[in-house]
């Protein structure tokens, strides 16, 4: 006799409870900013991906409102039927200019972008070699392809070269990496990755979810940071949430990439186009970061200060190179308790344990933003000092 839906749901949920992995998301009672409100408490928010403070920025909201008034609440159809408005085309041209690429296409999220692009570019007989710490959306996107899949050790160029050497093909060879790794905050060594890939005739594919809006001139991203933005053998994808403060995904690169994705990428073909307000907000965000360099300056000034002070207190941040700043507590129970203790002190920062991160490297992941003040960071550091000493992580 088959299992009932009720039994299946309850069994799965109980398994999550027993393993301590059942998620109960915190609910924000105010806009997502450096200062937010949770359960009636005002907190300094170190958990958000809102790197540039754009999620509630008045200029971006004003442009979104104008597009809403002028173009309506929704697009009304998929892009290939009747959902492509002039504003969609205009924004994609704006994005391609910003990224210095031959073309750009917008999809609904960074997650679906990986599914759409990998599913379109890769075919049976191709070989794809992926960093072992790549994001779940890359892993899921690759599962949908018929390409031969291989893994190389994280940022290990010798292992990447081994994998390329041992897996030749008459088809396409693709090396896939995050631009910035979301748990450790390290930057992919893209200069070395591209060099190795080129020796074996491979294309490099970069998921820049946490690099776009963070690295490169005016936040053009990891590919620009390393000087590969105008190269046809480098594909960059990413999200339009995080630093850009809104929602969506993009693919940018070779001039022909956009046209092929329009014809083959299933998330694009079978999803209603983005609402006008989203397009307006994104257009404003790209304009704003280029017009005002202070956003990038504050982001990196704050990042350097927080990292230096966390290290001075005696915490391990794994040598993070970006605003993503992990603070290691070791055991998951300690990281979760530290997160609770920080919230009691007005600091919202989320604990992460296995299987999201290795068992002995449970942590709190902090994301520093341009919107934080020095006073915010000092208050957070003081709370970290108290919590770390109470839990015996630092002296």
How would you explain this protein's 3D organization?
The protein is of the alpha/beta class. The chain folds into 2 domains: 128 residues, Aspartate Aminotransferase, domain 1; 233 residues, Aspartate Aminotransferase, domain 2, CATH 3.40.640.10. Helices cover 43% and strands 16% of the residues. It has 15 helices and 13 strands. Helix 2 packs antiparallel against helix 12. It is globular and about 60 Å long. Belongs to the class-II pyridoxal-phosphate-dependent aminotransferase family. Homodimer. Its cofactor is pyridoxal 5'-phosphate. Pfam families: Aminotran_1_2 (PF00155).
Shape: globular
Structural class: alpha/beta
Low-confidence stretches: none
- Our count of domains comes out at 2
Query: Order of helices and strands, N to C?
Result: HEEHHHEHEHEHEHEHEEHHHHEHEEEH
What percentage of amino acids are in beta strands?
15-25%
Protein name: Glycine C-acetyltransferase
EC number: 2.3.1.29
InterPro entries: Aminotrans_II_pyridoxalP_BS (IPR001917), Aminotransferase_I/II_large (IPR004839), AON_synthase_class-II (IPR050087), AONS_Archaea/Firmicutes (IPR010962), PyrdxlP-dep_Trfase (IPR015424), PyrdxlP-dep_Trfase_major (IPR015421), PyrdxlP-dep_Trfase_small (IPR015422)
Keywords: Acyltransferase, Pyridoxal phosphate, Transferase
